[in-house]
Amino acid sequence: MFPLALKNMLFYKSRSITTFILTFISTLFFIVYVAMMDGSHNSMLKNALKVYTGAIEIYKVGYRDLGGNEYLLRDVKSVENALARIDGVNSFTSRYETYGLLSSADFSSAAMVAGVDPDKEQTQSQLKTALVEGDFLTHDSKNCLYVGVDLAKKLHAKLGDEVSFIGSASDNSFAADLFRVCGIFKTGLFEFDSSGAFMGRTYFDALMLSQNMASYVSVSVDDLNEVDRIKSEIEKVLPKDMEVLTWKTLMKSMVEAMRVDSVFGYISISLFFVVIFFVVMIFGFINVSSRVREFGMLRCVGLSSSKVALLLFYEIFILSSLAIVLATPLGGYIAYYFSVHPIVIEGMSETYKAYGVVSDELPFSFDLFTISWNVGVIYLLNFLSALYPIKYVNSFKPIEATKHV
Predict the structure, then answer these.
(1) In the chain, N or C terminus with fewer CB closer than 10 Å?
(2) Predicted pLDDT of residue 360
(3) At what angle do helices 305-340 and 13-51 cross, to 10 degrees?
(4) Predicted local confidence at residue 355, as pLDDT
(5) Beta-carbon contacts of residue 178 (< 8 Å; ≥ 6 apart)
(6) Helix or strand or coil: residue 350?
(7) Is 60 helix (H, G, I), strand (E, B) or coil?
(8) Which residues of the chain are modeled with pLDDT < 70?
(9) Is 159 within 8 Å of 181 (Cβ atoms)?
(10) Nearest alpha carbon to residue 16 among 274, 308, 275, 286
(11) How far apart are CA 193 and CA 149, in angstroms?
(12) Measured distance CA(224)–CA(46) in Å, rounded
């Protein structure tokens, strides 16, 4: 059957060329499109995580639901020592967050004031990259306050201005001090920029009596795909009164938004494949309907209906394989190249850079498993397109087929 299928493929050139071109374009487009969609989602997620949220965050059970100083992490050093031994953990830092009232000479605003380690934050987040005015924090910053651009506008505060702080220390005692605005940042996230302010841990711990304490520990990982495994490893070495949350929970709204975007993306490409599928099927049907007498003669000399089906399957298999063998390496190379050398959207780069933390690059995702199932889908569609023509030609009895016009 295979030699005969090869002969038929060469004889019916127009049908073969059309099927080959459509399969080639479909495979190439599918691989590149999915690589671009997955790459944009990965880039979106990584950029969001770089702003402030960690890939993994460790809390005392009850902190996220109830809050309050009763649920602070009390022995941060032991947690950090445990994290240092976990394979796949890239970096980590502890943060002490509290909510209080910031006031300038004439204006006041509620704000989240957080004590952070300036050195670790440079690798853990993009707080320093988001700087638009002044300087980032250092261990010697003392009472310097690093504020969001929208919070500074609320307070009508500029660099060098003093703002007062009133809040509660870790032991629930009264905490108050005068801070000096030394830096202003802009991430583009309005809620964050309008309520976030940061100080170096050294000075802030002395004010809040929070040495070796933290609201939570933020962890970054080498590979986001390994986050569930790393979470399990961390849970094994931490006390039972601590909970470990991944970005899938911390950024649930973004995860759901990406899923919705993926669904619409696959719906869009499905419409393209529906068109390709029917074009291939119609060409196959036209080709088969013009060969009914040929198949009738083959049936009369002893070829069974199952052999006819196998013959047509071989024809579509040969054409699909040739197209896919050529398109897959090309599509894989394009995905790999743009994963290493992301596309830069020049027209929008300045807008992105103005926010300080959002990349202006559009990277692709190169994943062999994804490419494999992309190819599998194309194969499946091509084989499905041959089912109706096969059913049609086998619907004729051998003698009837030989008289078909």
Answers:
(1) C
(2) 64
(3) 40
(4) 41
(5) 143, 162, 163, 164, 165
(6) helix
(7) strand
(8) 1-2, 4-5, 8-9, 11-12, 47-48, 254, 299, 303, 345-361, 398, 400-401, 403-405
(9) yes
(10) 286
(11) 6
(12) 9
Distance CA 89, CA 259 (A): 26
**Cβ-Cβ contacts under 8 Å for 321 (sequence gap 6 or more):** none
pLDDT for 143 equals 92
Give the start-to-end residue ranges of the domains of the chain.
2-49+254-402, 54-250
Q: Kind of pairing, strands 89-103 and 56-60? A: unpaired
Q: Find all residues with CB under 8 Å of 308, minimum gap 6, and list them.
A: 295, 298, 299, 390, 393, 394
Question: In this structure, what DSSP letter does residue 99 have?
Answer: E
Rounded Cα distance between 369 and 366, Å, is 9
Shortest CA distance to 60 belongs to which of 252, 250, 238?
A: 238
185: number of Cβ within 10 Å = 27
Q: Whole-angstrom Cα distance, residue 79 to residue 90?
A: 15
CB 42 within 8 A of CB 385: no
240: Cβ–Cβ under 8 A, 6 or more apart, which residues?
none
| Lookup result for tokens 């994804």 | 370
Opening angle at CA 116, ends 111 and 117, nearest 5: 165
DSSP per-residue letters across 231-294: HHHHHHHS-TTEEEEEHHHHTHHHHHHHHHHHHHHHHHHHHHHHHHHHHHHHHHHHHHHTTHHH
- Calpha distance 184→117 (Å, rounded): 17
Q: Mark out the alpha helices in 52-168 (DSSP H runs).
A: 63-66, 76-83, 118-124, 149-155
